[in-house]
Amino acid sequence: MTTDSNKNSVEQAPIGVFDSGFGGLTILRDIRRVLPQYDYLFIGDNARAPYGTRSRELVYEFTLQAVKHLFDKRCHLVILACNTASAEALRTIQQRDLPVIAPDRRVLGVVRPTVEKVGELTRTGHIGVFGTPGTIASGSYNIEIEGMYPGYKVYGHACPMWVPLVENRESGGDGADYFVRKDINLLLGTCTDIDTVILGCTHYPLLIDKINKYMPQGVNVIQQGPIVADSLADYLLRHPEIERHCSRGGTCRYYTTEDPGHFSPLASVFTGETVDASRVIL
Ligand code: DGL
Q: Best mutation site among 26, 55, 114, 163 for ligand 1, i.e. most ligand atoms within 8 A of its Cβ?
């Protein structure tokens, strides 16, 4: 039985949330909607975004730096709110680094919870995935989906221009129309049976108006935020040994590797609250 005195001795800290840039805010927003009671600490590595066109080694190196920084801030649980980092760095961090640097802490990603959900949504079993070049080249979605649902077919399509459009605040512009329409046509042109498309990059919901404009009716578009949030709520219920280290205050602090003067105004638009970010050096 837990007594009040040893409950008080448990170290508590915010849940860490990491992305290469603005995209992770789309996940954080939904996590905070579902789990408003916890504290959060967000890091966007905007100075080095996009990750999706970088080598696997660099994505791993940058992601590990961010995870270590969040551990230094005492976070016991870190969510990689980034598909590229989840696809290219998570497994190594979980299997090789964590046992050495922090065996009692956890790092979770966004690919697995998304794949667990997709089976409920497709009728044809033909699933499209939009992602960064790194995520698509990693084959993570193919491996996870085909492993979990034998017989399903996965069609990955890399959209190298979508993240730069978001990071450069062009998601409402004509360039976004051009690239979103082009990439949707290219993906759907590979198979007419695709009925479900995963937005496999956390930046892509920031282009949702354009995506909805050009996606044919009848094709499900899967956004990860609500899925990851529900999955995290379930995880915390099943893992009280981690949950008890998550502080409860309903706060959120934001850090960026870029100039906070660049980050905060746009982050405020995405989160719907005033963001006053601080600079962090990883
Ligand atoms: N938002 C990230 C993802 O989900 C990374 C985008 C990037 O930096 O290229 O893949």
A: 163
**Residue 9 CA, distance from chain mean position:** 32
Residues of the chain with CATH 3.40.50.1860: 10-110+226-279, 111-224
pLDDT digits (tens, 9 = 90+) for 114-146: 999 998 899 999 999 999 999 999 999 999 999
Architecture of domain 10-110+226-279: 3-Layer(aba) Sandwich (3.40)
Say yes or no: CB of residue 256 within 6 Å of ligand 1: no
Contact 279, 256 (CB under 8 A): yes
Active-site residues, by number, are: 82, 201
Q: Is the CB of 229 under 6 A from ligand 1?
A: no
Is 49's C-beta closer than 6 angstroms to any atom of ligand 1? yes
Copy the structure tokens of residue 22: 């603005």
Mean pLDDT, residues 235-256: 97
- pTM assigned to the model: 0.93
